[in-house]
Amino acid sequence: MFSGASPRSYGLAGSIDLEGRVVNEQDVARVLASCDMPDYGDGREVLHAQPVNFALDHRTGLSDPRGQMGQELATDMHMLTVDAIAIQNLAHCVKRCDLELAGIASSSYVSALSALVEDEQELGAACVDLGGGTTGVSIFMKKHMIYADAVRMGGDHVTSDISMGLQVPTAMAERIKTFYGGVYATGMDDREMIELESDTGDWEHDRRRVSRAELIGIMRPRVEEVLEEVRSLLDAAGFEYLPSQKIVLTGGGSQIPGLDGLASKILGQQVRLGRPLRVHGLPQAATGPGFASAVGMCLLPPAHRMNGGTLTFRLNAILCAASNAPCAGSRRTGDAKRAKFRRCGVSISA
């Protein structure tokens, strides 16, 4: 599970001639290889590369074209890249713990897998994963992720504002945010006082009290700033053109009281808190929005299967196409690039 690292989304397209034959797995691999790889720059790694749509002649919206006949097969693919150094640091840390890294997935992607209902994934919805250091945004359409990005702010920035505003340690600021935080102040909040402790041991000298309204006044500007950045990302992605425009909030930061109401005002859409939906028997402590990404990792392998069997393809064809080298004779270039992709756990699947 991975978040941040300046994600960038790319839309790829490719097509091949079938000459009236029945589509098989080799044809699907060829059409994926026909997609033009963009120049995403040095120091970037591919985190996700997945076909989001297949079209056979004039029939579009196919999830699995195998077994059907036509003259032309086309596909649309979504590719997500991130900073390579972040991936390498994470892989190195895991390796030093004597563990093997099976793969990496975007946290906003896996959160959406567990928190979005079927209609939201089909008709269009955005998952906003409010983490500690970053806030991830993913957009789903036709049960596929079609866009992903991130805001370089999260719950830790709210905690930092509380720490500086109230002049308390970060650990105490996190505790105050968890127990007394919010984004809407009422008349009662002016009278509700919060005791601030100190680590010096001089309780008489260091004791202070602040109102909950003062705490909310510190938290709300930062939360509004995060949501404004999220709105900018959604506008840039053309989210308003989707048939359904629901927004689901996940992550530990989404549990701030009143955040869903504030998000509805700023984002102007239907907003709800997302919880893990597709895993039964979870303990009560693991059913909140903060566990959406962890549960989504458990759902990741089934999400990469198509009806009628697993449809997973090696990246050999695409890597050869990207390097303009024939597949059979591109062992040095192809193997190096495959190893590079394999470190990220990348697979091309529907």
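^ that was protein a. below is b, sequence first then the tokens
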Amino acid sequence: MVRAPGGSPGSPIWGEGTESRKANNPSYAKCVGAEEAGPLLEGRAPPTEPALLGPDPSFSTGENLAICLRIPNVIDRISPGAHLSSGAKAAHRRELPITEQRISARVGSIAESATLAIDSKAKALKAAGENVIGFGAGEPDFPTPEHIVAAAAEATHHLTYHHYTPAGGLPELRAAIATKTQRDSGFAVQPEQVLVTNGGKHALYNAILTTVDDGDEVLLPAPYWVSYPEIVRLAGGTVVALPTTEETGFRVTLEQLEAATTDRTKMLIFVSPSNPTGAVYPPHEVEAIGRWAADRGLWVITDEIYEHLVYGDSRFSSMPVLVPELADRCIVVNGVAKTYAMTGWRVGWMIAPLDVTRAAMSLQSHATSNVSNVAQAAALVAVSGDLSAVEMMREAFDRRRQTMHKLLNEINGVTCVEPQGAFYAFPSFKELLGTEIGGRRIESSEELGQVILDEAKVAIVPGEGFGAPGYGRLSYALGDDDLVEGVGRIADLLA
């Protein structure tokens, strides 16, 4: 709720006797029309720290913005998930003198990562002594294999690694990644096409910023990983979300893609296995989508970070392998994080046509320069070795996957499609919306997630961050006992 400075919950939103403020607020009519917005705040200077909890959903975006325009810097204090759009925030900043625009419109429009926010909150509660079980983290719970750690330790004594190295990555690592790519997916590339980045997320930033211009439309099947739309918007692109459901196995169809395509469509972001749903596209669907994109002349970014984490009869397949004619407009993103339990080492890569790789390398040279040399040395040993460690992790994840799927579907009001890859379950909580849980009426999965954290001390990631209200993501990359205990607590709360 938005309320007047100094107010308390339940106090008047607008203040009284302030009709005269309309004439003095040039943004007022622009936002909602002078006759629609109602009076603004009392004619007094607002305090430095206004009493603000977030926009009141009962008011329109323009009405909330009209309030915020009278409160200095209030737009930057609005909580994540607030109802003001990035455009409304930008409009607010344009009304301020440029010297008072503390945060740029481009950065101010970025939403906080829902997954990292939940993980941070859970860790903070744990640090405070609470017995919290976290299903939020998107990382393996296993340590990095010892031989990789040993290689990093040895690398610290290598004097060359004490200094700058090529911005695009160590030559030997780029060559090893090219070899590993052909070995694991069948995609033959040259070392010069590889750009080593500070994690897979950095690879996505490089790839999108290098290829997407203002106004370019990017097709993004939903549910999607939380960072994809934010990166596209940061590049000036327009996200075209394509909702999928359990009925299609959370897989986008050719009909959806075709219907969403316009003369402004530049790119498709394709992910299989999927974070957050665990969906895996069968090879014939991967090929069909790839041929459609090639025929349309579209770019495809294919995120292959979970390539080795597939279960049952599901199989990973790489789009540029199945559709070679797409290779000249395809960017593959990958990294060591999930396969080798190296999320904290921050080594990823993008593989692209030479001109794109060179342009992205130029961008990186002005941003981060080279990735940590010690981390690159560890990654070199990882990608050059066998896959025995990932097979051990995959077996454990598969066991936990089946356990979580069974337990979730035993909870009244919860349904869950069996995940086929990655290490996430994506249950639907839609039947619980509109009910009372823990003494609170639940209207969204975001509210449900907060109640589950408060009452059961279990952290899940609400579906809103993934473009899928009514759902939630639970990672099964945690110990078997904690998994059973955590889902059991949710079941007890919802019983």
